[in-house]
Specification:
With about 300 residues, this protein is an alpha/beta fold. The protein has one domain: Pyruvate Kinase, Chain: A, domain 1 (3-Layer(aba) Sandwich), CATH 3.40.1380. It contains 5 helices and 5 strands, in the order αβαβαβαββα. The chain has helices spanning about 1-60, 95-110, 125-130, 150-165, 225-300; strands spanning about 80-85, 115-120, 135-140, 170-180, 185-195. A 5-stranded mixed β-sheet has the order 3-2-1-4-5, sandwiched between helices. Helix 3 (about 125-130) links the parallel strand 2 and strand 3. Helix 1 packs antiparallel against helix 5, helix 2 crosses helix 3 and helix 4 (about 150-165) crosses helix 5 (about 225-300). About 30% of the residues are buried.
């Protein structure tokens, strides 16, 4: 019985140590999440300005815009590039796995249509998961998911733009976790290239129905096509950067939630083990009392 109590005490001690670690990880994730939210908030005005300028320049360029390689749609979309945005580390619930599953489902849809897939992934978890599934990763980008810089997004964008411009791929999509709240992350799938199918050239969803459209006259110097040629790579870069930042915030939120749940589960296990140890101690004390009483009766 004493041996059993020692085992339970050891288990309680081990779980208590794990609980301390999970609580510390929860607090670290919460601090990092606040910084990630601030970076997303600071990026939004710039990203919206780039989107608006690109849309206006494309409208001003008119038919001339279709001559730009990144705006022109390929005649036959046989090769699709898919960028998965994951994290470098685990212990974040389903954060990484849901992106990989979404990527695999998307690939299955395209492959059923006879298209070829080219894989790109940021984050060690995404790269290793694809390799484990036997997928060849053309572009692997790791080591920065905790705090991505704009240079990281630019490197990814350069590779994707070059692949599209060189006709190595006919379509580029990105899948990432969109940040809503620490408890909610939504898997988002967006088209990056061709830009004609991307959100930037669609309807201005941000403008309300009651808000009048702007008809301000703009003089372009140089011509709109030249300006658009510069804006399009910037838009692709900022789109990838936004996906990286949202993924980072989502990862910290998911990790904070996962560590809080782990701490609560550890507390419940400790409570159950404490009750078990108390019952064992009570049983041991009862057994000793019965032995004393039996011995006393035997003497008398």
């Amino acid at each position: 019985m004493a041996q059993n109590q020692r085992d339970v005490k050891n288990r309680i001690s081990s779980i208590s140590n794990i609980q301390k670690i999970t609580r510390a990880m929860e607090m670290v994730a919460a601090a990092r999440l606040r910084r990630a939210e601030q970076r997303i908030t600071a990026l939004r005005p710039y990203a919206e300005a780039i989107r608006r300028m690109t849309r206006q320049a494309a409208q001003a360029a008119g038919a001339e815009a279709t001559r730009l390689p990144l705006l022109a749609e390929h005649a036959d979309e046989r090769r699709v590039a898919l960028l998965l945005v994951t994290g470098d580390r685990g212990l974040a619930g389903a954060f990484n796995s849901q992106i990989v599953r979404a990527g695999v489902r998307t690939a299955a849809e395209y492959e059923s249509q006879g298209r070829e897939m080219t894989w790109y992934a940021s984050g060690r978890r995404g790269v290793s998961s694809l390799q484990f599934r036997g997928r060849e990763v053309t572009g692997a980008y790791t080591g920065f998911t905790d705090r991505p810089a704009f240079a990281d997004a630019r490197g990814i964008a350069d590779d994707l733009i070059a692949a599209y411009s060189d006709d190595k791929v006919d379509r580029v999509e990105v899948i990432y976790n969109g940040y809503v709240s620490p408890l909610t992350q939504i898997v988002r799938r967006e088209t990056l290239l061709p830009l004609a199918q991307a959100e930037v050239l669609g309807a201005e969803s941000e403008r309300s129905a009651d808000e009048p459209a702007s008809h301000a006259l703009v003089d372009y110097e140089p011509d709109p096509e030249a300006i658009l040629r510069q804006l399009i790579p910037d838009y692709v870069e900022i789109s990838i950067y936004r996906a990286l930042l949202e993924s980072t915030a989502s990862e910290h939120g998911a990790r904070m939630t996962a560590m809080r749940n782990a701490s609560e589960n550890a507390g419940e296990i400790i409570t159950d083990l404490t009750l078990e140890m108390n019952r064992a101690r009570q049983a041991e004390i009862t057994q000793e009392i019965m032995e004393v009483v039996a011995g006393a009766e035997g003497v008398s």
